[in-house]
Amino acid sequence: MSFLFGGSGKSKEQEAADEDKNLRTSLGFDPNQVTNVANIISTPGGLDISKLHPLAGVEKGVEYLDLEDEQLSTLQGSQGLIPSRGWTDDLCYGTGAVYLTALGLGGSYGFIEGVKNIPPNAPGKLQLNTILNHITRRGPFLGNNAGVLALVYNLVNSSIDSVRGKHDSAGSVVAGALSGAIFKCSKGLKPMGYASGTMALAAAGWCGLKSVLL
Asked: Is the pTM of this model over 0.70?
């Protein structure tokens, strides 16, 4: 009586069978009988991606893998140890590398300091707690300060390079001196002078190291 109500006259079993048949025809194999997908994929011509759902659009190729190489920075002298696309790369790489290095050095110093300051005859938990306290005090302190210095240095250095139209050792040393002065500007003229001179020497040393490695 299904024809009286506009039905197709097919049972659910028949519809499921037709759907399986269409799926086998489109894929070239019966997915219900597959026990190991690797066998289908490894077989030449076993799985044609063009037979997948048309909305996937895979017949046009996987577009997100087709990436164009971004142009590197054309600023004179801007390419160093790592290829750079501009000041944003220098900012990220430089700040991140300095922060992680200082964090590791500070944590190592804190570990040594914690071992030396373990109370005599202290239980194991107290010994571990003493070491961890020194590591967490020295590591983040040195890492955060070095990261801020590197951040300011890269911003100042990039600004100088953009104004001068080139990147060289002189600009880096000046950027180091200005960064140190800015970092300690709230402590007075004497700390500013010390920090400025230290950062200028550090920048000069880094430029010398780059010239040797390059």
From this structure: no
